[in-house]
Amino acid sequence: MQTEVLEDEEKEKDATDTGATNTQNTTTNTSNTQNTTTQTQPEPVAETSTNNQPLTSTKVDVDAVKDHLQEIENQFASQYPVFDESIYDGLDYQRVEMPTAESIAQMAQEDLSDYRQTHVENINTDYMADVNSLNNQESEVQNELSTTQDELATERDYGLARQQSENISQGIERSSIASNRANTFNATIDRELETALNQANNELAEISLKREIAESEFRQALENFDITYANKLENRISELTKEYSNKQSEALEYNERIQKQREQVYNEWKRWADTYTSQLDSQKGMQKAYYVIDQIKGLSRRDAMEFLKDADIVKALGIWYNAVLDYVERVL
I need a labelling partner for 136 at 20 to 30 A (CA). Which of 30, 49, 195, 203 fits? Predict the structure, then answer.
């Protein structure tokens, strides 16, 4: 493509040289006076650069050329393909993070929370049922004892009063007989009270023992459940650890497939981007080269070569710099 630019320019030069030769051949020499026909160069045509600014044949505004080359660079800059992650739409990686041991233990506890709460509540309910039953039994014994004591007290008062009445009617109220009868009666009541009290104490002692047994069974039930719960918790932790490990393995395999697909998509985009970039580079370089050539057409080869020594011009033309030099050597 660079050569094509120069070929067009070279054709223009050849056409100019041919015209000059024809003019020289039609010139006639006289015998007395040697007239040398001078080849006339065509008047320089005011060239118009791509920015529509007329240029002279003897001077080029280097800064203006640099500015315009930069303008061309800027015009193309926004056209170059820019990588965008959107090409991977639908090809997202699976992200499975392995929880810490503490996190897995917390999840296992949450999973077993209802199980633990239900069983602990059941143990507490059974224990409280036993406690309430024993409390009721204790209250019944105490109430029975109190009732018996009240009845015996009434019976004592009534019996002594009756004996007193009989003693009076018999005229022995002050005798030892009356005293012995009263003592005997009181002793009977006392024995009944003692019997009732002993029975109540025995029953209360039995209830107290049952309460101790209930408390012991309650503690044992909690301990047994703690062991069962600990085993279930350990099993659940193992299950969760295995589940997350499997998920990670599955995600790894999936991500490997996704990675290959993403690489394929990227390679396709890269091939297109490289091709399109190359096309843009060619268009940009050609436009810069045409512009520079247009600016130096009216210069002598020496001035043109001097102009092309500018480092910024060399950098701006890039690989097209040699094409412009070739044009100068063949045309100017």
Answer: 195
